[in-house]
Write a structure and sequence with these properties.
Radius of gyration: 31 Å
Distance between the termini: 60 Å
Mean pLDDT: 85
CATH class of the largest domain: Alpha Beta
Low-confidence stretches: 281-299, 301-305
Helix content: 25-40%
CATH architecture of the largest domain: 3-Layer(aba) Sandwich
Structural class: alpha/beta
Largest sheet: 8 strands, mixed
CATH topology of the largest domain: Rossmann fold
Number of domains: 4
Length: about 675
């Protein structure tokens, strides 16, 4: 049965892909083409004739125009779309199943056989559609010069692409490119050094001819050919033995030909066919929503007997929705502990999260609102930790003046506010108090202390919306008992969705650096009904020492990408559990396992990155899971604050809830599941 295909774009590659599909009607069935500038009556001439590939109409027998948005090629009707945003196209409405190089295969082969030490390559590339026919104005690069009579040095992204598919070659591959005035076919000049100093050029050729993909991906040329002779070839890596050189022990110059249009398109089809078959197999394996690699013991059926967690609801009458602050002097505790790098705020998410509560209170015309927060962990009044830098951010977000109170919780501040009472009456004046942690009594809280008394004197209504620190037994958090804000309300509601499963299947994804930090949470979630855990990242290091027997509902990510340390080149590690860690990003098998588990779950809770995301090499796995979760619109996804939430900044989706509290969220969940005391910041509001 042929694959139903939609082609997005009918430029050079789209055209080549289309022609190759038409040549195999038993394999591919083109249902739709999205080409914004192509009219139905232009399809025939565009596909039948080509300046580079002379195929004498090739696979096209006849083309008929059915309507302005439909053509019939070889008797098969094809819909024509014209939308620049392919994600908005109704591919499914036309029955589409799926939509749609030289250096990589060569380096993979050489590295596996002889161990590459370093590579430098130059791509001698045929002209592309971005080249100019005559000189134009462009200050950024040299591509504004005419391609007709120039060889044009150009950058290439091939080295970065190589790392993505062959991470073990990270830091070993460098390259550049030169555009030349040829219509098609390119040549790679590759200088490679290998660890096997006894290897010869003939050894490389022999390894290629013996490879299972010889004839599909690899090919040899022993003739005195030139670029035009490789036009319309399908293998992307053709080693020209007569042009290549053996330059001494372990050093080679490899000359590789490829048709940058036709062979690239052929490989696109190979990959697409493979993806289609793999996806179909996965769907068959997932029938009944059971992972293909899951043992019967770890299925959800056996997890239903665990005890349902304690309800952790809040008193609705103490919500800001019910508490009136009109005409009052409000003191509001928030969590504005934003990430800062060299004086620059990297993410103001926590400040923005407080806006609904602040604006709701301002709409009731209070006399004033004193915003209370902390920054960092200062020892005393350390001006490096002043919160004054937040003033312009808060002013901008609120669209009103905000006055800074530099003396913090003090008689001086109280006197200043008293002097402003007449002016502030009913005005909704906003103040920002200096870092509350400048006071030792904040973190070493004692009821009835002098600091506590002064704090209460700042206003007559003390509210809290600082979920990120409700697990702290700190003065300003515990003494805020007049009402809770919308953020706390939303956070507790989101956690309720996680805890009150009501038969829903829950998947916890746990990552991070240290198993000791997450062990209590893993213990906790393992006791929830209908819940499974995927554990990855640095948590797999030391797993056996902390969990001699892996719980039945825990799936471990065994493989990884990593090295002895972050300075060393990355490599694939097939089993970090047996070989003692070193993994800095989730491996391909772990990724497949995790995606299978996500597909089964109804609610997904993720806390802790699966790799060292500060290093671009090890950010890939976490970034891929972000994209996959964003696409799960039929599920509920809860992200547990910290670095994990930072991955979603700018990618918000209605089904994804980003928590502002990592430690607070975990502490609250543990208090409910393990039936412990309510966290300090919620004790006054708990039912």
């Amino acid at each position: 049965m042929p694959i139903n295909v939609g082609i997005n774009g009918l430029g050079r590659i789209g055209k080549m892909v289309c022609l190759q599909m038409l040549a195999e009607p038993d394999v591919y069935n083109i249902r739709a083409i999205n080409a914004t500038s192509l009219q139905a009556d232009e399809v025939s001439d565009y596909l039948c004739y080509d300046s580079a590939h002379h195929y004498d109409r090739g696979p096209i027998k006849n083309v008929e125009v059915v309507s302005k948005d439909c053509v019939r090629i070889n008797g098969n009707e094809i819909r024509l779309f014209k939308n620049r945003d392919a994600s908005k196209l109704e591919w499914r409405s036309v029955g589409v199943d799926c939509t749609t190089n030289c250096l990589g295969p060569m380096l993979k082969l050489v590295n596996e056989a002889f161990e590459i030490e370093n590579v430098f390559f130059t791509t001698i590339h045929a002209s592309t559609g971005s080249q100019m026919t005559v000189d134009t104005i462009n200050k950024k690069n040299r591509t504004h010069r005419s391609i007709f009579n120039n060889m044009i040095p150009h950058s290439t992204g091939a080295a970065k692409s190589i790392f993505k598919v062959l991470p073990e070659l990270g830091g070993k591959v460098w390259g550049t490119s030169v555009r030349v005035p040829c219509i098609n076919c390119s040549l790679l000049d590759v200088n490679v050094t290998v660890a096997d100093k006894e290897a010869t050029l003939q050894d490389i050729a022999d390894a290629m001819t013996k490879h299972e993909l010889f004839g599909k991906v690899y090919h040899l040329n022993n003739k005195m050919l030139t670029s035009v002779d490789f036009m319309t070839t399908v293998t992307p890596t053709i080693l020209d033995l007569k042009a290549s050189l053996d330059m001494g022990p372990g050093s080679f110059k490899l000359m590789l030909w490829y048709d940058n249009e036709w062979s690239y398109s052929a490989q696109c089809l190979r990959v697409m066919s493979h993806m289609f078959k793999t996806n179909a197999a996965a769907k068959r394996a997932l029938t009944g929503r059971v992972s293909p690699r899951m043992s019967p013991a770890s299925s959800y059926v056996n997890l239903a007997a665990y005890k349902q967690p304690r309800a952790c609801d809040l008193q609705p009458e103490l919500s800001l929705r019910e508490v009136s602050v009109g005409g009052k002097n409000v003191v509001a505790r928030f969590d504005f502990n934003v990430p800062v790098d060299n004086g620059t705020v990297m993410d103001d998410f926590r400040v923005r999260a407080a806006l609904p509560s602040i604006n709701h209170m301002l709409a009731q015309n209070p006399n004033r609102i004193v915003l209370v927060c902390h920054f960092g962990r200062p020892k005393g009044a350390d001006k490096k930790c002043t919160v004054e830098f937040l003033l312009p951010i808060i002013k901008s977000l609120l669209g009103r003046e905000v006055t800074f109170l530099p003396d913090g919780v003090s008689s001086k501040t109280i006197d200043f506010l008293k002097d402003r009472e007449a002016a502030d009456e009913g005005s909704g004046a906003v103040y920002l108090l200096e870092n509350i942690r400048f006071h030792e009594g904040e973190t070493k809280y004692k009821a009835g202390s002098k600091l506590s008394t002064l704090y209460k004197s700042l206003g007559n209504s003390h509210v809290a919306d600082c979920f990120g620190c409700v697990h702290r037994n700190h003065m300003s958090i515990v003494e805020s008992t007049s009402g809770y804000g919308f953020l706390i309300e939303e956070e507790v509601k989101a956690i309720g969705e996680l805890l009150k499963t009501n038969g829903k299947r829950v998947l916890g994804i746990m990552g991070g650096a240290k198993i000791a930090d997450k062990q209590p949470m893993i213990d906790c979630l393992c006791k929830m009904p209908n819940t499974k855990m995927f554990v990855g990242g640095g948590l797999t290091r030391g797993w056996k020492e902390n969990f001699p027997e892996t719980p039945v509902n825990v799936i471990l990510s065994r493989d990884a990408y990593g090295a002895a340390d972050l300075k060393a080149p990355a490599s694939y590690l097939p089993d970090i559990l047996e070989n003692g860690g070193g993994g800095f990003d989730v491996g391909p098998q772990g990724m497949r396992d995790l995606i299978a588990e996500i597909d089964q779950a109804d609610v997904i809770f993720w806390n802790g990155c699966l790799g060292v995301i500060e290093d671009p090499r090890y950010r890939v796995g976490s970034a891929m899971i972000v994209d996959y979760l964003l696409a799960q619109t039929g599920k509920r996804v809860i992200i547990g604050g910290g670095e994990t939430a930072s991955l979603f900044v700018g990618k918000e989706a209605e089904h994804v809830y980003l928590s502002t509290g990592g430690g607070a969220l975990l502490a609250h969940i543990q208090s409910c599941v393990l039936d412990k005391a309510t966290v300090p910041g919620l004790a006054a509001y708990a039912m």
